[in-house]
Design a protein that fits this description.
heterodimer; A: mainly beta; 4-stranded antiparallel sheet; 12 strands; 0% helix; globular; B: mainly beta; 7-stranded mixed sheet; 11 strands; 53% strand
Chain lengths: 115, 113
């Protein structure tokens, strides 16, 4: 079955530390990949997405993610986090050939940034 | 900006009650979705709809039904609420021309007592 794994459930960092959140998926075909963010009390919003082309994608607020096809991974990175990055982060995958619009979400990573 | 609104932010219902959760989007999107979000489980798809009066089951449809009579509105119905349906419910929509990008509403936190 298709699945998305986010191995880090809780991450605590100090401001200015570097961030890398892992995301691995299981699916043998072509996929579209997403990272969503949910700030406290706010709705889920798209951080960045990968459909095709350059495997290094840049999103909002200084985030980037790298698609490594051979590792089935799409890790999220930020060189220097801020207190305002405290949020829950979700990786999501949708197969391009599924014929439906289903997303498969990971279980999320809660990031807390200490001021 | 795409706007997806949900009828309530917080809702408290009793076991056995029939519960309606409403979702409205203002961008003429073809696709609409209902998820529930639970700690440690992420988002799980309950139902989705790709057109008016069309619906498809997601991963956890049991105990739920949906209705889409108008393009902008997608309703989630709990026929007989149970305590294990206490959760955060998220509605999302997407346009068919960017079929894989979803826009989410603020969520409804439902408590069933």
């Amino acid at each position: 079955a298709q699945s998305v794994s986010q191995h880090n459930h809780h991450v605590i960092l100090s401001e200015a530390a570097s961030l890398e959140l892992g995301c691995n998926y299981s699916y043998g075909g072509t996929v579209n990949l997403f990272w969503y963010v949910q700030y406290p009390g706010q709705h889920l919003q798209l951080l960045l997405k990968y459909f095709s082309g350059d495997p290094l994608v840049k999103g909002i607020k200084g985030f980037e993610a790298e698609f490594i096809k051979s590792k089935f991974s799409f890790n999220l990175r930020k060189p220097s986090v801020q207190w305002s990055d405290t949020a829950e982060y979700f990786c999501a995958v949708t197969p391009t050939t599924s014929g439906t619009y289903k997303y498969i979400f990971g279980t999320g990573t809660r990031l807390k940034v200490l001021a | 900006d795409v706007k997806v609104t949900q009828s309530s932010r917080y809702l408290v219902k009793r076991t056995g009650e029939k519960v309606f959760l409403e979702c409205v989007q203002d961008m003429d999107h073809e696709n609409m979705f209902w998820y529930r979000q639970d700690p440690g489980l992420g988002l799980r798809l309950i139902y989705f709809s790709y057109d008016v009066k069309m619906k498809e089951k997601g991963d956890i449809p049991e105990g739920y039904s949906v209705s889409r009579e108008k393009k902008e509105r997608f309703s989630l119905i709990l026929e007989s609420a149970s305590t294990n349906q206490t959760s955060m419910y998220l509605c999302a929509s997407s346009p068919v021309w960017s079929r894989y990008e979803q826009y989410f509403g603020p969520g409804t936190r439902l408590t069933v007592t």
